[in-house]
Amino acid sequence: MSKKLTKIVRIAVAGQTATDGRTIEPKWLTVMAANYNPETFTARVDVEHYRNASASGPFPALGDVKGLKVQTDEIEIAGKTEKRLALYAQIEGNETFQAYIAADQKKFSSIEVDDNFSGTGTAYLVGLAASDNPASLGTEAITFSTRTDDAYAKQLKAELDARKQRPSNCFSSAYA
Q1: Is 49 annotated in the active site?
Q2: Which residue did the predictor score with more confidence, 109 or 148?
Q3: From residue 20, how far is each of 16, 23, 118, 149 by CA, in Å?
């Protein structure tokens, strides 16, 4: 099954949600980004927060969250611009998820937070739903990168390495 990475996408913004009155705490976002490690626990992507009991059920797993980061963004709310902490993710999506996105379905996200993950007293992203109705303000539509294969990444690294003045120099490169 072919998997693709998404572009880095905003999956939540701190503050009160738009649809159900919950509050997404800024500290949760910071701690989740700092502590997220898929080798410890991988947040799976599912359909509208439903999980199948079997591999052939109607709500298949769609992929995995590969990494998180936070940054402060400007969000327009009721005609005013506010600075809010935002959580971003890179997601690896399977063919089913890619087909949903191509069909303009389930293109937004809804986070699942455990605020006392494994008894640690800290927040952790334990799941992510692909949704048509996100609760958080400022969620971005999920899109998949066009180039995510390992061969391309190795080729790009070789090209950049050849342009370095010294081996210890580093480049940063964006690709779609």
Answers
A1: yes
A2: 109
A3: 9, 9, 26, 39
Q: Is the pTM of this model over 0.90?
A: no
- Catalytic one of 2, 20, 56, 104: 20
Whole-number Cα distances in Å, 165 to 97, 162, 168, 169: 42, 9, 9, 7
| DSSP per-residue string spanning 59-97 | S---EEEEEEEEEEEEEEETTEEEEEEEEEEEEEE-HHH
Give the H or E element holding residue 154: helix 150-162
Of 46, 109, 110, 131, which is the active-site residue? 110
CA 32-121-21 angle, to 5 degrees, is: 65
Reduced to 3 states (helix: H, G, I; strand: E, B; else coil), residue 130 is: strand
Of 52-61, 75-84, 102-111, 160-169, which gets the smallest average pLDDT? 160-169
Question: Does the annotation count 114 as an active-site position?
Answer: no
Stretch among 93-97, 123-127, 168-172 having the lowest mean pLDDT: 168-172
136 among known catalytic residues: no
